[in-house]
Design goal:
Layout lengths: L1 H17 L5 H5 L6 E3 L2 H8 L12 E4 L3 H13 L5 E5 L14 E5 L18 E3 L4 E5 L4 H9 L3 E3 L10 H5 L8 H4 L6 E8 L4 E5 L4 H7 L7 E12 L3 E9 L2 H12 L12 E7 L2 H4 L25 E10 L4 H12 L9 E7 H5 L1 H11 L10 E6 L3 H13 L9 E7 L16 E7 L13 H17 L5 E2 L7 H8 L3 H11 L26
Parallel strand pairs: 2-4, 3-4
Antiparallel strand pairs: 1-2, 5-6, 6-10, 7-10, 8-9, 8-10, 11-13, 11-14, 12-13, 15-17, 15-18, 16-17
Length: 535
């Protein structure tokens, strides 16, 4: 009874706010097992995201108890005469309002009130199939909880993101990348099967063999073709410990040459390659000893001037070797053999050893420190770019050494690491540079209101524009990761030759453009289904 009253109140708000022509009894007949609410705290949470750059207040928020709840709501939107947008929200870690909507409802997939309800559509916790080496997880499950569940069986997913407090559905809708990508591919290359609610409100199971077009469309599809309610993720035996190493370079060519060499070893036996390859750029004294670089001892801080930085810029290679305690006697030899082939500054080898789970969850520890200082819930004007290998030296010269240089006090890490294109499935919806190797360059900076001009939101936003303009002027065909554009023309340019395929998939799986309108790729077309025959 209480649920029906809440639902009635939510429907009344929809009618008053947008003049919804949908018969209220249609929503009342949804009989959702979760909660549809207009509670101010729920609405406010769904109005914001990690980026803190945009705000869009939804009309209501659904906390689903099952995949069927998700399907019922989307189907109601699809069948209604007026219609309304539906956006799925995970942990709210989007940057530019991608999971927001101001003309519809948000489905809160992570931390739903129904999360403890076991049902046919939503298990109460990840279900591990140890013999088959995969795990079934709810789309709103956080990767940290997937890890905890699989470790109980001595298993773990193969490919990760740097930060684990992200939803499975969220990262699979983009790609999901980290230092393991060169070896295992992105997270979307490690999925066996999905349950997806399409824009027609149909709950569909899909895989390589079953409904493959939907399967590949949804992976990296930016939420445009369906809401992931279940994912079957590939697992491998979990290591116990990690040897974590950082070395410094002053020469960019040596740095990228070594990174590219290390990722070329992906087909070698485990003993002859590193398990994780990343890196970051150091353009000021603060960054090398800040939160992302807390690996270095604060009692013995590293000075850029002491290691001969080229034009005030240093590059840090970050690598790891996974191992079991039973093989600890060989790990030193394996690491030393690999390090001998690299050309870093000899005096700058920094090493630590820790549990596998502690390494994977390393950024959360930094989050807790930032929260304690009030530096977490601030604007994040992030810019993530895929840069082709052939242009990475030009990017270094024009961006790291010129636009940034040693004149910018950085308020967050600048990551850089290469990936192998053959580890990405071309059938997915993700677009990457058309070269065998391309780099992620991620400007993960926070805007701080501390009186420092170079850390202000306006300054960082303008600098992002400068970087994109430089790439355009220099003929560097970058592709945004976690892309954000304001017009469909820009989206068409982003997808290039893949636009027609992307557009056709939209027509097939979300013809009324109901889903993920916050991406600003398609404008919702709220017409009755019967009128679509003339499209």
């Amino acid at each position: 009874m209480a649920t029906k009253l809440l639902l009635s109140f939510a429907i009344c708000r929809l009618i008053v706010t947008v003049g919804l022509t949908l018969d209220p009894t249609e929503l009342l007949r949804l009989r959702v097992d979760g909660y549809l609410t207009v509670d101010p705290s729920d609405v406010e949470t769904a109005s914001l995201d990690f980026g803190m750059l945009t705000r869009a207040e939804p009309l209501a928020v659904l906390h689903p108890a099952s995949a069927q709840d998700v399907a019922r709501l989307v189907k109601a939107a699809y069948r209604s005469n007026y219609g309304f947008a539906v956006s799925a929200r995970g942990h709210g870690h989007s940057i530019n309002g991608q999971a927001q909507t101001s003309n519809g409802m948000v489905i809160q997939m992570s931390g739903s009130r129904g999360s403890g309800v076991a049902s046919a559509g939503k298990p109460s916790q990840p279900r591990v199939w140890a013999r088959e080496r995969y795990v079934d997880v709810w789309g709103g499950e956080l990767w940290i909880d997937v890890l905890r569940s699989t470790l109980e069986y001595g298993l773990a997913p193969k490919s990760w993101t740097d930060y684990l407090y992200l939803s499975v559905g969220g990262t699979l809708s983009n790609a999901g990348i980290s230092g393991q990508t060169f070896n295992h591919g992105p997270q979307i290359s490690n999925v066996h099967e999905l349950d997806v609610v399409t824009g027609k409100g149909e709950l569909v199971t899909c895989s390589e063999d079953q409904n493959p077009e939907l399967f590949h469309a949804v992976l990296g599809g930016l939420g445009q073709f369906g809401i992931i309610t279940r994912a079957r993720i590939s697992l491998e035996p979990a290591p116990q410990r990690v040897r974590w190493i950082r070395v410094l370079y002053s020469n960019f060519s040596a740095f990228t040459r070594d990174q590219e060499y290390l990722i070329s070893l992906h087909a070698q036996p485990a003993s002859q390659k590193f398990d994780y390859v990343e890196g970051f750029v150091i353009v000021d004294e603060g960054l090398i000893n800040n939160w992302r670089s807390s690996f270095f001892s604060p009692r013995n801080p590293v000075k850029i001037s002491s290691v001969g930085a080229n034009e005030g810029v240093l590059y840090c290679l970050e690598i790891t070797k996974n191992y079991h305690e039973s093989s600890a006697d060989t790990i030193d030899q394996e690491v030393e053999s690999l390090l001998k082939k690299l050309n870093f500054i000899p005096t700058t080898v920094f090493t630590t050893d820790l549990l596998y789970v502690d390494f994977l969850d390393r950024v959360h520890k930094a989050e807790l420190k930032l929260r304690s200082k009030g530096l977490w819930e601030v604007p994040h004007p992030w810019l993530n770019l895929f840069v082709p290998k052939s242009k990475i030296a030009d990017f270094d010269k024009g961006v790291f050494k010129d636009i940034l240089g040693n004149k910018t006090k950085t308020s967050g890490p600048i990551l850089i690491y290469p990936m192998n294109k053959n580890k990405w499935d071309h059938r997915s919806s993700v677009v990457t540079p058309n070269e065998d190797v391309f780099y992620l360059v991620a400007f993960l900076r926070s805007a701080l209101d501390n009186g420092e001009e170079t850390q202000s939101l306006d300054y960082l936003t303008n600098q992002n524009r400068q970087i994109l303009k430089f790439c355009d002027d220099a003929g560097i065909n970058v592709k945004q990761y976690l892309p954000h554009y304001a017009t469909q023309e820009e989206w068409m340019d982003h997808f290039g030759n893949e636009w027609d395929r992307f557009y056709q998939r939209k027509i097939e799986f979300d013809p009324r453009h109901i889903l993920a309108s916050g991406q600003q790729i398609f404008t919702p077309t709220f017409h009755s289904p019967s009128s679509m025959a003339s499209w």
